Structures are given as structure tokens and as C-alpha cells.
TrEMBL record:
It holds the Pfam family DNA_pol3_delta2. PANTHER family: DNA POLYMERASE III SUBUNIT DELTA, REPLICATION FACTOR C / DNA POLYMERASE III GAMMA-TAU SUBUNIT. This is DNA polymerase III subunit delta. It comes from the Bacteria. Coiled coil: none annotated. The lineage of its organism: Bacteria, Pseudomonadati, Pseudomonadota, Alphaproteobacteria, Sphingomonadales.
Length: 324
């Protein structure tokens, strides 16, 4: 049996993948399904590297291997492409396009370059254009020999049933507190016990959210979000403090982390809320999810965005308050 990269909290999925590689009848298409922030993207790359590795060879770099093709959001324009090339944060297009799928399919007309296997990663498959989905379906129906698909999905229900029916599912579960603590200790060793505890409490079981929490120093923002959600904010005082804590010119990464944190705070509050308040939380969470989906590609005004987040938290607060 091959040995591979350990994935804290996802060891069962990793063992299942390694066992499939060793089997004689490995399925050709896989759905890596679970909430955002559970490590599916890193898992897909490591899984693809294991798949194409030749016997006795070192584990290859998934980003550079000629038989691993990754379809993901492209830079939004030429200027953003330059930022990506320079290693800077960059904005992306909203969807994975049909042109990307067609370019991938053109490669499938040739044999793998270095071995007998080729991996196609689509991250995330949720964001494929409609025409791109239809084009991909043709490849899933008649996959070339030695070609394997890994479709990362945060919301499997958004995919066509005809796509889902052709895939074997690997499910990614939320992590337990001790597993989250191990992830933070591994990736942010300088994080203190208090910061780790706060990140774990705010993460909703997602290591991605927990790491963002620690790296973006969201402790103050977290406390203010909890106060708004539980106390309301009739005089806008807490929302003003939230905007001040966020900063005048926060990075896009900090904005995205704040959005994910607000969603996690709402989900955590849901269990203890009464029926009427649950409905308000669900409605506000849905709006936050829409903002999270738009934020990577839209240039939101940072001040307005954090006030919108605060308003949605206030709308779901214990005392009824309409978002403003």
C-alpha cells in the first residue's frame, strides 16, 4: 500500500482513495463533497499526485506535473493575470468556462505523458458554466482509458443528477475540536492557546475558517459579531465598532474571512434559537452566502460590506431588528 500525505480529520477519505488506487477496477470519476474550508482542494492535489506517481518514484508536484490538469477560476483580466504571475492576490472570473473544459478535452485526445494515468481536477465543479457542465458530461460518459476526474464540490445538490450519478462520492466531515487544534498548531505554530480556542469556537468545524481566523486576527471582530447577533444594534454603535475593528482598507482575504466567520457564527447560534429566530438566521445566512459567492469576483466597498454584514447579524438578533 502506498503511503501519502496525512489529512487531519479526513483520514478515512484518504485511506479510501489509496485503496481505490490499488484496486484493479478504480472508478473514473470522484466527487470530493463537503463544506468549504475542509481541505478538499489540497486533498485533490495530493490525491492526483498519488494517482500519477510511477512505482518507486517520488511524489510529484501536482501544480507542475504534465498529467495533472487543474480547472479552476482564471484571473478576471490581464491585469489580474499579472498579479497572479507575481504571486500577489488577484480577482478571478465568476465561473469555470466551457473554453477551459474544451482545452482539457483536447488534451484527452493524447496519451498521458509520463505514465498510464492522468488526473483532471475541477475546483469547484459547482462553478462550471452551464455549457461547460454539458461538455464535461460527455467526457464523464466516455472517459479515455487512464483518465480520472476529481470534482471538488461544496454543494453537490447544485450539480446535475447526470453528473452525480457518474461519480463515486468521497465525503469530507467537519473536524472535532482536538483535530482543529492540531491543524492550527501545525500551520500556525505561533498561535497561542487563547487564539486557538477562539478560532475553534468560531470555525464551525472548518479548518479553513479556523486558520483564517488566526491568520487574519479576527478575535475582536468575532466578539463584536457575537454581541450584535445576541443583543441587536439599534443605535448602530456596535456596527461602527465592527467597521473600526475591520480596518479602513482591509485586504480581500480579510474581507472573505470576515464573511465566513459571520456565517459560522450564525450557524452556531441556530441550534439554540427559537423557531421564529431560526427563520431569521436562515434568511440572513442565505444573504451572507450570496455575498460570499460574489466577493471573490466583485470589488465591494470594504466599509459598506462590513456594515452589511453587521446589519444581517442584527436582523437575526434576539431582539427583532430589521437590517438597515
Amino acid at each position: 500500500m502506498k503511503t501519502g500525505k496525512p489529512f487531519i480529520g479526513q483520514e478515512a477519505a484518504w485511506r479510501e482513495w489509496l485503496a481505490a488506487i490499488e484496486s484493479e477496477r478504480m472508478h473514473h470519476a470522484w466527487l470530493l463533497a463537503g463544506a468549504k474550508g475542509l481541505g478538499k482542494q489540497a486533498f485533490a492535489r495530493a490525491a492526483a499526485a498519488e494517482l500519477v506517481r510511477e512505482p518507486g518514484a517520488r511524489l510529484p508536484d501536482a501544480e507542475a506535473h504534465p498529467d495533472i490538469h487543474i480547472l479552476e477560476h482564471l484571473p478576471a483580466n490581464d491585469d489580474e493575470a499579472k498579479k497572479k504571475a507575481e504571486g500577489k492576490p488577484y480577482q478571478t472570473k465568476r465561473n469555470i468556462t466551457i473554453d477551459q473544459v474544451r482545452q482539457m478535452q483536447h488534451r484527452l485526445t493524447t496519451r498521458p505523458t509520463m505514465g498510464n494515468r492522468r488526473a483532471i481536477i475541477i475546483n469547484p465543479a459547482d462553478d462550471l458554466e452551464k455549457n461547460a457542465v454539458n461538455a464535461l458530461l460527455k467526457s464523464l460518459e466516455e472517459p479515455p482509458t487512464g483518465t480520472y476526474f476529481l470534482l471538488v464540490t461544496h454543494q453537490p445538490g447544485r450539480l446535475l443528477p447526470t453528473i452525480r450519478s457518474r461519480c463515486r462520492v468521497l465525503r469530507f466531515a467537519s473536524l472535532m475540536p482536538d483535530e482543529l487544534d492540531a491543524v492550527i498548531r501545525r500551520d500556525v505554530p505561533q498561535a497561542g492557546a487563547e487564539a486557538r480556542a477562539a478560532a475553534i469556537a468560531a470555525s464551525g468545524g472548518s479548518p479553513g475558517v479556523a486558520l483564517n481566523f488566526v491568520e487574519q486576527d479576527l478575535g475582536g471582530i468575532h466578539q463584536l459579531m457575537l454581541r450584535i447577533l445576541r443583543e441587536g444594534d439599534a443605535d448602530f454603535h456596535l456596527r461602527g465598532a465592527l467597521a473600526e475593528e475591520m480596518g479602513a482598507r482591509p485586504t480581500r482575504e480579510r474581507q472573505l474571512a470576515a464573511l465566513e466567520l459571520a456565517r459560522s457564527v450564525m450557524v452556531a447560534e441556530l441550534a439554540s434559537a427559537g423557531r421564529a429566530r431560526q427563520l431569521r438566521i436562515i434568511e440572513a445566512h442565505g444573504t451572507l452566502t450570496g455575498l460570499s459567492n460574489q466577493a471573490p469576483t466583485y470589488n465591494f466597498d470594504a466599509g459598506l460590506l462590513i456594515m452589511e454584514i453587521g446589519g444581517l447579524l442584527a436582523s437575526a438578533a434576539m431582539p427583532r431588528e430589521a437590517a438597515r
